Amino acid sequence: MTILNTAIIGGGAIHGCHVNALRQLPNVALRALVDIDSVKGLKLAMNYQCRFYQDYREMLLDDGIDVVHICTPHVEHKDMILAALAAGKHVFCEKPVGMNGGEIRDITRAAEQASGLLGVCYQNRLNPTSLRMRKELAEGSLGKMLSIRAFLTWSRSGAYYTESPWRGRLATEGGSLLINQAIHTLDLMQWLAGGVTRLKGVVDSGELADITEGEDSAMATLHFANGARGLFYASNCHTTDSPLLLEVHCERGTLRLNDNALWRVTPGERSRLENDASPDGSAKSYWGLGHQQAIRHFYHAVNNPGSTDYTDIREAGKSLTLVEAIYRSSQLRQWININN
C-alpha cells in the first residue's frame, strides 16, 4: 500500500492527539509540522523527525504531502481548508470546521468540487458508550425516545485564555463555551435523536465575565426530529472537568451515561453495557479517547474511495448550526427553527 505523507498545521495542545493517532496507523508518515512560532515549531519538528514550516502555504507547495491536519484557532480553519483542498490535499480538521453558517456554505461548495476528502474531528461519536447507545436506540427494545438530558460542567481558568489569547474572543473563537467545549455534547444529542427542529436557549457569563468576550454557561431546550425533547446545560465555571452526564429516557427504560460508563435502567433492573476506559485501565480523558478512531476512519476513507464512515462537512455543520441558533435565541429571547 502507498505511504500517505501527512502534515499537521498547529502545534498547540490538541495536536499531540493527532500525532499519537498517526503513529498507530500503518503506511502513514508525519512529514511536516507547521507553526507560526518558529522556536516551538522547530523543536516539535526535531522531536518528530519531520520538516518544519512557519507558513502553511509554503507547506502546501510540497507535492509529497497527501493529507493535512488542521489544529489551529477557529478563525483560521476556513482559509486553511480552502487552500489545502485547492492544493489537492485531503484535509482532516478539528471542530468547529468553520466559525458560522456562511463559512460552512463556502467550505461545503469547495469540498464538493475538490479531489481530496474533508473530514472533521467529532471523536466523541466514536466513544464505545456513544456507539453502544446508538445501537441500543436503533434496536428499539426500550421503545420510543421521549427525551435526552445532558449536563456538562468543566473548568476553565483565566490562565487557559491568557496563554492562548485567541480563546474567548468573538473574532477568533466565534464564541466561547458553546463553540469550543460544549459543541461535542450538542452533536451527540442531535446525532442520537436524528436532528433538531427547533430550540430556545440562553447564554451568559459569570465567573469568566471579566476574562472572555463569550459565554461561560449555557442552557437550551431542544425539540428533536423524532418528537423527543432535549434539555441541555453546560458551564466552564466548575472547579474540575467532570465527565459528561447524558441520559436518554425512553418508553420502557433509560440509557444513562455517567462517570464514563453506560447503564441500561429498566423497572427492576440496572445493567452496565459499556464504558470508555482505556485498554490499559488508565482514567479516561475528558476529551474522550476517540481521536485515534476518528483519524483511523478518515484514513480508511482516503484509502477506500466511496467510504462514508467519517464525519464529513454536512454532518459537521449540524452542531455548528445548533450553536449559532442558541446564540441567536439568547439574543432574541425566542424559539429558533432549525432547517435540517
UniProtKB/TrEMBL annotation:
Residues 5-120 form the Gfo/Idh/MocA-like oxidoreductase N-terminal domain. Transmembrane segments: none annotated. It holds the Pfam family GFO_IDH_MocA_C3. InterPro entries: Gfo/Idh/MocA-like_OxRdtase_N (IPR000683), Gfo/Idh/MocA_Oxidoreductase (IPR052515), GFO_IDH_MocA-like_dom (IPR055170), NAD(P)-bd_dom_sf (IPR036291). SUPFAM superfamilies: Glyceraldehyde-3-phosphate dehydrogenase-like, C-terminal domain, NAD(P)-binding Rossmann-fold domains. Residues 132-256 form the GFO/IDH/MocA-like oxidoreductase domain. It comes from the Bacteria. PANTHER family: D-GLUCOSIDE 3-DEHYDROGENASE (PTHR43249:SF1), UDP-N-ACETYL-2-AMINO-2-DEOXY-D-GLUCURONATE OXIDASE (PTHR43249). This is Gfo/Idh/MocA family oxidoreductase. It comes from Enterobacter huaxiensis.
